[in-house]
Amino acid sequence: MNLDLIPQIKHTKSDNFFLLSGPCAIEGEDMALRIAEKIITITDKLEIPYVFKGSFKKANRSRVDSFTGIGDEKALKILRKVSETFKVPTVTDIHEVSDAEKAAEYVDVLQIPAFLVRQTDLVVAAANTGKVVNLKKGQFMSPESMQHAVTKVTDSNNQQVMVTDRGTMFGYQDMIVDFRGIPTMKQYAPVVLDVTHSLQQPNQSSGVTGGRPDMIETIARAGIVTGADGIFMETHFDPANAKSDGANMLHLDHLERVLTNLVAIRKTVNSLE
């Protein structure tokens, strides 16, 4: 994948990791613009290539009454407005074959959720749009098996593909990151570490997913040290009241400190290489 081919992406010559970050879900226009503006201010200051992330809908929910979105077209138009307002690329996840062409009209990167990455028709539909495809490694899959998911994209005449590790199931209610997977998957495509979802604690009896946001910087630091090309990190100015995944999101007020530390570590890693 050539990072420079992502429309409107900046700072690609900085030798920094790239960042996919934003709220878990698009809850409204004001919140999306507020979060985007803050992140862009930080990433411009630190010269981090940046893609704004926001789910236009949430299909994988624990309970039927969980928040799923504000409406597909409404949320996708907000993603487009973020892109046009701040001149920044955007990424969203898709869940059905019909989502691929629909979302591709509004965003620059299509993300395949971890639970769906083995769904061939979905992966191929994303690849056929010509957009960059971000494949999330299934919580149940080995790093080596992601080679086949990448091949589904490249065999569809799309070389713009990356892989994201979001942890592996450890028992029923916890996730771990096997950092050996980062250099392994880098043989197939650029690798992103999804820091916040790697700290989820799913399958809680309440039906609401838990998390360990206190460990976000620890996992992110380890990802940079082990060679991650990019970092995926969900953030919100009010995680406690976020409509999705609030338990494992980073508070927006802490983002600059965390990214500043990661940039310093990346510089050290670069000097060693």
Automatic annotation (TrEMBL):
Metabolic or biological pathway, per its Swiss-Prot or TrEMBL entry: Bacterial outer membrane biogenesis; lipopolysaccharide biosynthesis; Carbohydrate biosynthesis; 3-deoxy-D-manno-octulosonate biosynthesis; 3-deoxy-D-manno-octulosonate from D-ribulose 5-phosphate: step 2/3
Cited SUPFAM superfamilies: Aldolase
Pfam families documented for this protein: DAHP_synth_1
A cellular component term, taken from the record's GO annotations: cytoplasm
Entry keyword set: Cytoplasm, Transferase
A GO biological-process term: lipopolysaccharide biosynthetic process
Record domain DAHP synthetase I/KDSA: where: 8-265
The reaction(s) this protein catalyses: D-arabinose 5-phosphate + phosphoenolpyruvate + H2O = 3-deoxy-alpha-D-manno-2-octulosonate-8-phosphate + phosphate
Localization in the cell: Cytoplasm
Principal subcellular localisation of the protein: cytoplasm
Protein name as annotated: 3-deoxy-8-phosphooctulonate synthase
